[in-house]
Each structure stands twice: as structure tokens, then as C-alpha cells.
Design a protein that fits this description.
The structure holds 2 protein chains of 2 kinds.
Chain A lengths: L8 E6 L2 E3 L24 E3 L1 H17 L3 E10 L4 H10 L3 E6 L9 H14 L6 E5 L10 H9 L3 E11 L4 E8 L2 E8 L2 E5 L9 E2 H9 L2 E4 L32 H10 L6
Parallel strand pairs in A: 1-4, 1-6, 4-5, 5-12, 6-10, 7-10
Antiparallel strand pairs in A: 2-3, 7-8, 8-9
Chain B lengths: L2 H8 L2 H9 L9 H10 L5 E3 L12 H4 L12 E3 L4 H14 L3 E4 L16 E4 L6 E5 L4 E5 L4 H8 L4 E2 L12 H7 L6 H4 L2 H4 E7 L5 E4 L13 H4 L8 E8 L1 E2 L3 E9 L5 H12 L3 E8 H9 L8 H4 L4 E9 L3 H19 L4 H4 L13 E4 L3 H12 L1 H8 L1 E8 L5 H14 L8 E9 L4 E8 L4 H7 L2 H8 L24 H14 L13
Parallel strand pairs in B: 2-4, 3-4
Antiparallel strand pairs in B: 1-2, 5-6, 6-10, 7-11, 8-9, 8-10, 12-14, 12-15, 13-14, 13-17, 16-18, 17-18
Helix pairs in contact in B: 1-21, 3-5, 11-14, 12-17
The chains are: A alpha/beta, B alpha+beta.
The structure holds flavin-adenine dinucleotide.
């Protein structure tokens, strides 16, 4: 029997369309000649940590059944970012919100995204009980959005979650975090911000029937001005450089030669 | 030069056989030979249990035994030259001295071709790893034969090219080994066989002569195309030292989908429909039967499909598409893929769309999963590529790599299983599984029998049964792995006497003393 006191959970999962890094690990991100950004003319897909976030929301529903009332995915980005929402919907989210930005505008920064999310959360009639986000996006690696959102909303936050257990009756959640030398468990009250770590789960494949169903699920379109927010960047990128090229190795014939080479390179004392 | 031919001509059919069985005898490597090799090679390039090198026997075991630990040689000496000149000098010496040589690449071959039968000298190409040239305009890459396939792929990636072949062993196999086995692999459907993409070869012939055919021409009609003979010769005609190969432009957008089929009979109509819908962007169509899938998943190869997607599936098909350009084509590709998926999952309206199919009002697939990210793309491929490894983790594998009509794939697997059952061998302590998977696009089935141990009893149940089965389909007993030592006796199931006789004459022409990889390909 379902506990009567339980409030039905509404879960929001912000997702980011990011530069697809690799199919082959060998495909490299290239820095633009002006050193202000990277070549974005490559493949895109959902940020992997965000995929984990969607998966976790869907798993919560599988576990808690009807106690999860809604799972909404949201993205802020150009028209093409809608693909990412379709992926989220195919994985099992119920509906989506697309805050569409012009194709030409620069990618929004964490603070802008956090403000947009706050505005969105405040618009939700049924409220939001749980926001699950990736701990970072692997294109800019900022790793700030979740924390900023928690600050703006004044909600508790549990970052780098490797396990999440939600108790809707008590309106609280237990989160396990991987820390240096072990695991740390924290207990938080809902509403709550959770950011996902790599080992939280392994995202499912989207099955064809679910991809078909996803096409019929609603995507609400909004503009930044609908939310009364300004996404103009406040940070200036001064320079992006590629990591130094790896030097080719060489083979040595003997231990003595190895030591001599190490000394030459100044790695061991003379 | 054609002395052998004259002999053969005059002999009646039965004598040809007997003649073929008389193996020439070879001289073992001696300390005197080692002294000569020390003049040719630096000390680090010689491994030998003989004095004065005295390498421990254990250090030679990776060279003497094959990847599956099925074939075992007793060679005393492994030479690892760095240059074509060194190879040439070694071979000249061995030819004069009557020492037999086994060329060895990454030793990932599956038919025992790369390990000695007795104590032949092993010539490993592993130290020949230079990329000689690359032309980013034509995509032609010229490399030493010892370059690892994956290393060449990595080299090409920043130039937006890919190797025209790819296979599960890519991290260990060498381009010279690939050419010598005429490896097929996962990209053949799209880029064709090595007979097309290899443009030139440098080969050290069995007398030590260097045959330089390392051209970088796409077109060259100047008489007999000799290099073709070395593609798939499995080291019996000479040692490939350099390869010139045409790389393909890297597809900018790839995607894959794993489809779950209710019954095997749907594979062919599905293949037809997929070809029709995806046409030039179709780059792979791989078949996996349910048992092969389960073995792969059991041994942790790739991420398993969701349970509800596997339910009721008799087999799976992995379809890959590769599009030309970026964003724009990616959308086109997605659209086509979606359209296909629409068609495949639509049950009622199937009639109008698939009227040509046999059972038009039944869906061809139960369901399927479409990769959503690069990680999932690799995970789906890992299931297919991981079967070889899963099979060998599960037990001892009898591997039959056959070409037969695609419509008979399942029948061949079922008949083989039945054969083993009728011999009472289908039990946990004998044969554990009979699985089928392979390259539907190329008509190539991998029929694998997983046993608890290699036993004469199982072998007798399988051979010549499987070869006769293949012959009954007018198929090939070796689609892509080659003949090696495993199938020399079975060659007549696929090649007629005239063809075999010509092969023997060619062998005698290049290698009159028979020192080059004896006992392989031809008996
Ligand atoms: C996991 C796995 C997956 C595989 N998948 C496929 C597949 O999809 N398709 C396929 O076709 N094969 C496949 N194979 C088998 C395939 O034949 C080999 O992996 C590969 O092509 C052999 O290369 P190698 O460098 O390891 O050669 P080796 O195994 O060392 O040698 C193979 C043969 O070539 C000869 N040889 C090697 N190098 C030279 C040279 N430089 N000059 C002259 N002769 C030489 C050897 O004498 C031997 O006869 C697979 C093997 C494994 C282990």
C-alpha cells in the first residue's frame, strides 16, 4: 500500500548537448586558431553525466512506481539541442522543456544556466522536489551549475553522487559520495539538488519503441526572455591551448642505459 | 624454373597426391647459424635457446604457441629484424642452408598459420613498425608490415582517414599479417577486400630477393598483378615487409542499432529492407545468434541490452551506418534511420511498404536499441567484437569460418549441433555450446563449437562433417581466416584439383626448396 502522507515526486533533469568527444578515442578536440574556443564543427550528443542523471530519474520511477509523478528533462541551447531532449524522452522522461537560444549566441555559462533553471523551477505548478544534474559537462568541465542552483534556491545539495536512495514518505534522501579514501553518506531533506558521478549507474540503451513513443511526448518551448533572464556571458575566455605534444619514446638495451638516460633527462640525481 | 610443373604434368592423379605428401626435410638452426645471424642483426633482435644466446625456453612460448593455445611449435630461434635488408639477408641464408621459416605477425591468426609445426625458425615482423609515407590528398599510406593495425588507425585519425579494415584483434594484429591472411573483418561490406585496397607490396622472396612492388598508384594495368598472390598467401610465398594501402575518408557521422529478431528467417528480408532504406550509408550488417549474444554478455563484452528487449529474440542483427559529412548528413542519416525503424516496428501498415517480403503482415523485428552516445556506440560494437574473446573464455573453441548462402546460416548451426548431439557429445564435459555469428553482409558465418577440452572424439565428430556440410552448400571452408595448418587437408572441399595443382606450381615457382612456412595452406 502506498503511504498516504507521501508527496508525489516531481523530478527535473537538466541536460546539456555537448561536443561529442569521441567515437574513436582517437578523434581529437581541436583548438580554434584564435585560441578562444574549440572547433564545434564535430559530432554532438548528450553529456555523459547528464545521461546518468536521466537514467537515475528513470530508475527512481522503476523503484518508487507511482510515487514519482513526473520526470521532466530540460535543456538550454540552440534548436538542435532538441535532439538531446528526445534522447532523454526515449530513455523514459515524460516531458521536456527547451529554452531555445539563437544559433549564433555563445553557449550559456553555469550562472546563466542556474538562473534559468531557478526561473523554470519557480514556474512549475506542481513544484519540483528533486533536481538531478551531471556533476560537470565534459566540454567545458566547469562543474558549477548544480552548486550555483542550490545556492540560488537555498536548497540542500549532494554533489558527486555514486548512490541515491529517496524516501518520499520522509521527504528525504540518502546520498553516497566517493571521497578520497572511501565513501561518505549524507542525508538531505527534499527539495534537493543532486549531481551525478560516473559510477551512479550505467545508462540504458534507448529502445526503438521508446524512441517512437518519445516523438509523441510534449516539448515545451521557451525563450530566455520568457523566463526574464539574460544569458549574456560574464566571463571572458583569454586563451585555450592544446596540451603539449607527447614526445615519442625510445627503447633502451639495458638497465645501465636506462639509468644514464634518466640522469640525462634530470629525472634522477647524478 | 617450372621443373615442378613438368613433374606434375606427367604424373597421374593419384601420384600427385602422394607427391604432395612428401614433405621436404629441413635443417634445424645450429649455433653456426646463430653466429651468422649475429652478423646480420643486433643482439636485441635474436632470441634463441641455442648458445651463445641461451634465451630461456619460456621466453619463446609466446612465439611458439598461438593465441588460442591450440597449436604448439618447438622453435629454438626467433629473429626480429628491423629492416627489409635484414629480412632479406636472413632469408637468403636460410634458403642456402635449407632452414624453414615461419613468418609471424601479431600471432592472432586463428588457423595456426603463424606458429611452427616443428622447429622452423620464427621470423617475427614486430620490430618493423615505421610508417614510410602518407599522402593526405590521396589517402595512400605506406608502412612497414609490422605496424599494428590500431597504430595505423591512430596515425590516420587526425588526418580524417580510417584504415579500410577493422577487426577484433586490431590491438595486436599487424598489417602484414592482415594482408597475408587477406583479413576480412567488420568493414568489408563498405570498403571491400584487401585485394582492392592494397595498392602495393614489398616482399622478400624465399631466395632473399626483394620484390619491390610498393607502388602508390590506384591504377596500374601493366601485365600480371603479382602482388595479389601474396594477399592471402599466409606467408607461404615470401615475407611481406612493406604495404601500400588506400585509406578511406573517415565517416563524419556513424551510428548503430542492435535489432532483436523473433526468428532467424527474418534476417534475409531484413537485410534486403535495410539495404534498400539505407543504401550507401549502410556500413555493417552483423549477425549474432542468441547463444553467442549470451556468451558475450556472460563474459562482460559490451553492455547488455535491457531484459525486455532481449525477451523472445532468436537472434540479433547489428546495423551500422556511416555518413559522409557532419551536421547536415547526420540529420539525413538520423532521418533515414528513424524511417527504417518506423517501418520495422509498424505492424499494420507493413503491407504496403514491404509488399515484397514473404510475411508482410508480421513485423521483422521485435524491437531494437539505437545507440545514443559514442559510449553506447562502442558498447554495442563490443558485444559483437567480444564474441571471439568470450568464446575462448568459455572453453576450447573449434572455429569454423565459412562462406555459405546466408539463408543457410541457421541450418548449418542447427545441423552441427544435431551432429554433436547424435554422437552424445552435447554435454557439459564435452561440447558446451554451438554458436553462430558473423558478417551477413559478406555471407560469412562463424560457426563456433565451444568444448571443455580439445579431444580427438569431438574433432572426429566435426571433421569432415562440417567441411562436407559446407561443400553441400557449395560454400568455402575458409571465408576469411585462411587455411593455415588447420585446414590443409580440407582444401579439396572448396578448391578443385586443377586449382590446387596451379597453387602448387606457383608455390614451387617462388619457393623451389619449400622453406617458406612449410605445411601451411598446401599439404
Ligand atoms: C579477436 C580476434 C578477432 C578476429 N577477427 C577477424 C575478423 O573479423 N576477420 C578476419 O579475417 N580475421 C579475424 N581474425 C583472425 C585474423 O586472421 C588475424 O587476426 C589477423 O589478420 C592476422 O594478423 P597477425 O599479424 O596476427 O598475423 P599472424 O597470426 O602472426 O599470422 C597469420 C598468417 O600470416 C602470415 N604472416 C604474418 N605476417 C606476415 C608477413 N609480414 N609476411 C608474410 N606472412 C605473414 C603468418 O605466417 C600466418 O600464416 C581475428 C582474430 C582474433 C584473435
Amino acid at each position: 500500500m502506498r503511504p498516504t502522507a507521501a508527496r508525489l515526486l516531481n523530478i527535473l533533469v537538466p541536460v546539456k548537448r555537448r561536443v561529442r568527444l569521441t567515437i574513436d578515442y582517437a578523434v581529437k578536440i581541436r583548438v580554434n586558431p584564435d585560441q578562444k574556443g574549440v572547433d564545434l564543427n564535430v559530432k554532438h550528443s548528450m553529456n555523459p553525466f547528464d545521461e546518468i542523471a536521466v537514467e537515475e530519474a528513470v530508475r527512481l520511477r522503476e523503484k518508487l512506481k507511482d510515487e514519482v509523478k513526473s520526470i521532466k528533462v530540460v535543456t538550454i541551447g540552440p534548436a538542435k539541442a532538441a535532439e538531446t531532449l528526445r534522447t532523454g524522452l526515449a530513455m523514459g522522461a515524460d516531458s521536456a522543456i527547451h529554452v531555445e537560444t539563437p544559433e549564433s549566441s555563445p553557449p550559456p555559462e553555469p550562472l546563466g544556466v542556474a538562473k534559468a533553471l531557478r526561473a523554470l523551477i519557480e514556474r512549475q505548478k506542481d513544484g519540483v522536489d528533486l533536481v538531478i544534474l551531471g556533476k560537470q559537462a565534459i566540454d567545458d568541465d566547469a562543474g558549477q551549475t548544480g552548486q550555483m542552483l542550490a545556492g540560488l534556491l537555498d536548497w540542500p545539495q549532494a554533489t558527486f553522487a555514486s548512490k541515491l536512495v529517496v524516501d518520499p514518505t520522509k521527504k528525504e534522501a540518502n546520498i553516497t559520495q566517493e571521497i578520497d579514501g572511501g565513501l561518505q553518506e549524507v542525508k538531505c531533506k527534499l527539495p534537493l539538488i543532486v549531481t551525478t558521478d560516473l559510477r551512479l549507474n550505467e545508462p540504458r540503451y534507448a529502445s526503438l519503441p521508446n524512441i517512437m513513443k518519445a516523438k509523441k511526448k510534449p516539448i515545451e518551448k521557451l525563450s530566455p526572455s520568457d523566463l526574464g533572464i539574460d544569458l549574456t556571458p560574464r566571463l571572458e575566455t583569454i586563451k585555450i591551448t592544446e596540451p603539449p605534444k607527447r614526445q615519442g619514446g625510445g627503447k633502451v638495451e639495458s638497465v645501465d642505459e636506462l639509468i644514464a638516460k634518466l640522469k640525462e633527462a634530470g629525472v634522477v640525481g647524478r | 624454373m617450372f621443373a615442378a610443373r613438368n613433374v606434375v604434368r606427367r604424373l597421374p592423379q593419384r601420384s600427385i597426391r602422394r607427391w604432395a605428401h612428401t614433405q621436404p626435410t629441413f635443417n634445424p638452426v645450429t649455433e653456426q647459424d646463430i653466429a651468422r645471424f649475429q652478423q646480420i642483426l643486433p643482439a636485441s633482435s635474436i632470441l634463441s635457446t641455442l648458445a651463445p644466446i641461451s634465451t630461456p625456453v619460456a621466453e619463446l612460448s609466446n612465439f611458439n604457441n598461438d593465441w588460442m593455445n591450440k597449436y604448439h611449435g618447438k622453435s629454438t630461434t626467433v629473429l626480429r629484424p628491423c629492416t627489409t635488408k635484414e629480412v632479406s639477408e636472413i632469408v637468403r641464408w636460410c634458403n642456402e642452408r635449407g632452414i624453414a621459416i615461419v613468418p609471424q605477425g601479431g600471432n592472432t591468426g586463428l588457423v595456426g598459420g603463424g606458429v611452427p609445426i616443428k622447429d622452423e625458425l620464427i621470423l617475427s615482423l614486430g620490430n618493423m613498425t615505421k610508417i614510410r609515407s602518407f599522402d593526405p590528398v590521396s589517402g595512400i599510406i605506406v608502412a612497414d608490415s609490422g605496424c599494428i593495425l590500431e597504430a595505423l588507425s591512430e596515425y590516420l585519425a587526425p588526418h580524417n582517414y580510417i584504415m579500410p579494415l577493422d577487426l577484433g584483434a586490431k590491438g595486436s594484429c599487424q598489417i602484414g599479417g592482415n594482408v597475408s591472411t587477406n583479413a576480412g573483418g567488420l568493414r568489408l561490406l563498405r570498403y571491400g577486400s584487401l585485394h582492392g585496397s592494397v595498392l602495393g607490396l614489398e616482399v622478400v622472396l624465399p631466395d632473399g630477393t626483394v620484390l619491390d612492388q610498393l607502388t602508390t598508384l590506384r591504377k596500374d594495368n601493366t601485365g600480371y598483378d603479382i602482388k595479389q598472390l601474396f594477399i592471402g598467401a599466409e606467408g607461404t610465398l615470401g615475407i611481406i615487409t612493406g604495404v601500400s594501402i588506400l585509406a578511406a575518408p573517415a565517416p563524419q557521422a556513424s551510428s548503430n542499432v542492435m535489432l532483436a529478431l523473433p526468428k532467424y528467417e527474418n534476417v534475409l528480408p531484413l537485410f534486403r529492407e535495410v539495404k534498400r532504406q539505407l543504401s550507401e550509408i549502410l556500413s555493417a550488417f552483423e549477425f549474432i545468434d542468441r547463444r553467442a549474444y549470451e556468451l558475450a554478455v556472460k563474459h562482460g563484452q559490451g553492455r547488455a541490452l535491457n531484459d525486455e528487449d532481449v525477451e523472445g529474440a532468436e537472434c540479433f542483427v547489428l546495423v551500422e551506418t556511416s555518413g559522409g559529412k557532419r551536421e547536415h548528413d547526420e540529420e539525413v542519416r538520423l532521418k533515414r534511420f528513424r524511417l527504417l525503424c518506423n517501418i520495422l516496428t509498424r505492424t499494420q501498415k507493413l503491407n504496403g511498404l514491404l509488399e515484397s517480403l514473404m510475411e508482410a503482415d508480421e513485423p521483422l523485428i521485435n524491437t531494437g536499441v539505437l545507440s545514443q552516445s559514442p559510449a553506447q556506440f562502442s558498447q554495442l560494437w563490443a558485444i559483437r567484437e567480444g564474441i571471439t574473446e568470450a568464446v575462448s573464455k568459455e572453453g576450447k573453441a573449434y572455429k569454423y569460418d565459412i562462406s555459405i548462402p546466408v539463408a543457410s546460416f541457421k541450418e548449418a548451426v542447427d545441423k552441427t549441433r544435431e551432429q554433436l548431439r547424435s554422437k552424445g557429445l552435447l554435454r557439459d564435459d564435452a561440447v558446451k555450446h554451438v554458436v553462430g555469428y558473423g558478417h551477413v553482409g559478406d555471407g560469412n558465418l562463424h560457426l563456433n563449437v565451444v568444448a571443455a577440452a580439445y579431444t580427438p572424439e569431438i574433432e572426429a565428430a566435426l571433421e569432415p562433417f562440417v567441411y562436407e556440410l559446407v561443400a553441400s552448400y557449395k560454400g568455402s571452408i575458409s571465408a576469411e581466416h585462411g587455411i593455415g595448418v588447420m585446414k590443409t587437408h580440407a582444401l579439396p572441399y572448396t578448391k578443385n584439383p586443377t586449382s590446387i595443382e596451379i597453387m602448387k606450381r606457383i608455390k614451387a615457382l617462388f619457393d623451389p626448396k619449400g622453406i617458406m612456412n612449410p605445411g601451411k595452406v598446401l599439404e
